[in-house]
Design goal:
Number of domains: 2
Bound molecules: pyridoxal-5'-phosphate
Number of strands: 14
Order of helices and strands: EHHEHEHEEEEEEHEHHHEEHEEH
Radius of gyration: 21 Å
Helix content: 25-40%
Structural class: alpha/beta
Shape: globular
Strand order of the largest sheet: 2-10-9-8-5-3-4
CATH topology of the largest domain: Aspartate Aminotransferase, domain 2
C-alpha cells in the first residue's frame, strides 16, 4: 500500500532522491561509500560546491553578494548565531509562534530584544501586520512559515535595517524576492533534505560589525572563508540536500513547484472549509501552504477518523502537541495525489457521520 507522508519534519523527500542517496552510501566514488571518504576529497568538495551554488541559483541570489553555507546544529543554532554575529545594541523580532519565541529567547542572552508585534495572545493563529520596525536597530527577525500553527507571512515588510528570516519550513516552496533578506536560514529536514544540516544564506557585507569576540564555529565569516568546510561538514545530509536541489532545478525551480504547492493547498483548504466536521486553525488570510492545521468539530469521531486514515495509508497527520488536532504538511515532494487521498477520507467521514 502506498504511504502518504504528511509528516511535519523530518519530511517527505522525492523517491528518486532517497534512491540515489542510498546508492551513494554503498558506492559513491570508485567503490567507496559517501560516508567513508574524506570530506576534503575532490568528489565531496564538488558536492559541497554544487549544493552551495544550486541554493543561490534557485533563490535567484547569484552574484548579489550572498554566500551559502551548510552548517550543523539545526535551525536552533541559528537562533544563537544570528544574534552573536549581528546583535550589538538592539534587535526587533516578530513573534509568530514557538520557533520565533525560541529565537527571541536565545537572542535575549546577548542583548535587549524588542518584540515588534506578537500573535501569542491569540494562540498564534494569525500573522500581525502594520507594525513599525525601528530604523536604528541592528536587524529585524521574522519566521516566514510557522510550522506548528500553520500560518505563513504572505507579504514581508519593507525593512530599512538588515532583515533575517527563519525559512525552515517553506524555503524553496514559493517565489519571493529573496534579495530583501540579509540572512536566510533553514533546517534541511523540513523542505530540503534529511536532518543534520542547516542552509544559511548570508549577505557578506552585514558581517564584522559587532564588537564581541565570536568563537570560530559560531562565526559566519570563518565558515565563509573556509568554503563551508571549517570543520567536517555533515556529508550525508549535504549530499542528499544537493540531490534534492538538483531535482527541484530539473522540475523548473521554485516557480514550477509553487504551482503544485498552490494546487495542493487549495484542495486541502477547500475541504477544510466545505466539510462541516472540520475547522481550520489559522485565520484564512494567513494560512500556510505548507502546513494546514485543523481540528475535528466532534471529538467523538476521532477514533473512526484515525482508523480510516490508517487504512488509507495516511501518515504523520497528528498536530503538534501544543495545538492538538491535525496538521497536513504538504512539502515540495508531497504529490497532489496524496492530498486527494486525504481529502477523500475527510469527505467519506462526512458521509458516514
Ligand atoms: C523545525 C523548525 C525549527 C527548528 O529546527 P531544528 O533544525 O530542529 O533546530 C526552527 N524554525 C522553524 C520554522 C522550524 O519549523
Amino acid at each position: 500500500m502506498k504511504i502518504h507522508n504528511f509528516s511535519a519534519g523530518p519530511c517527505i523527500l522525492p523517491q528518486e532522491v532517497i534512491q540515489k542517496a542510498a546508492e551513494a552510501v554503498i558506492d559513491f566514488d570508485n567503490g567507496l561509500s559517501l560516508i567513508e571518504i574524506s570530506h576534503r576529497s575532490k568528489a565531496f568538495v564538488d558536492v559541497m560546491e554544487e549544493a552551495r551554488a544550486l541554493s543561490l541559483e534557485l533563490l535567484g541570489l547569484e552574484g548579489k553578494g550572498y554566500k551559502a553555507l551548510f552548517l550543523a546544529g539545526g535551525a536552533s543554532l541559528q537562533f544563537v548565531m544570528v544574534a552573536m554575529n549581528l546583535l550589538e545594541k538592539r534587535a526587533g523580532y516578530l513573534n509568530t509562534g514557538t520557533w520565533s519565541k525560541n529565537a527571541i529567547k536565545e537572542a535575549k542572552i546577548f542583548d535587549d530584544i524588542y518584540e515588534v508585534a506578537s500573535s501569542e495572545a491569540a494562540g498564534y493563529n494569525y500573522i500581525p501586520k502594520g507594525y513599525d520596525i525601528p530604523t536604528d536597530y541592528d536587524y529585524f527577525h521574522c519566521t516566514s512559515n510557522n510550522t506548528i500553527f500553520g500560518t505563513q507571512i504572505k507579504s514581508f515588510p519593507n525593512c530599512e535595517i538588515p532583515m533575517v528570516c527563519d525559512m525552515s519550513s517553506d524555503i524553496f516552496s514559493r517565489v519571493i524576492d529573496f534579495s530583501k533578506f540579509d540572512i536566510i536560514y533553514a533546517g534541511a529536514q523540513k523542505n530540503m533534505g534529511p536532518a543534520g544540516t542547516t542552509l544559511v544564506i548570508v549577505k557578506e557585507d552585514i558581517l564584522g560589525k559587532v564588537s564581541r569576540k565570536i568563537p570560530a564555529m559560531l562565526d559566519y565569516k570563518q565558515h565563509i572563508s573556509k568554503g563551508s568546510m571549517y570543520n567536517t561538514p555533515p556529508v550525508f545530509p549535504v549530499y542528499t540536500s544537493m540531490l534534492n536541489l538538483r531535482w527541484l532545478k530539473k522540475l523548473g525551480g521554485i516557480a514550477a513547484i509553487e504551482k503544485e504547492n498552490d494546487k495542493k493547498a487549495q484542495l486541502m483548504y477547500s475541504e477544510i472549509d466545505l466539510n462541516p466536521l472540520f475547522n481550520g486553525y489559522a485565520v484564512k488570510e494567513d494560512r500556510s501552504k505548507m502546513n494546514a492545521t485543523f481540528t475535528l468539530e466532534n471529538e467523538n469521531l476521532k477514533e473512526t477518523f484515525e482508523t480510516m486514515l490508517k487504512e488509507a495509508g495516511i501518515n504523520g497527520l497528528n498536530g503538534h502537541r501544543s495545538v492538538g488536532g491535525y496538521r497536513a504538511s504538504m512539502y515540495n515532494a508531497l504529490s497532489l495525489d496524496s492530498v486527494k487521498a486525504l481529502v477523500e477520507v475527510m469527505s467519506e467521514l462526512e458521509q458516514k457521520a
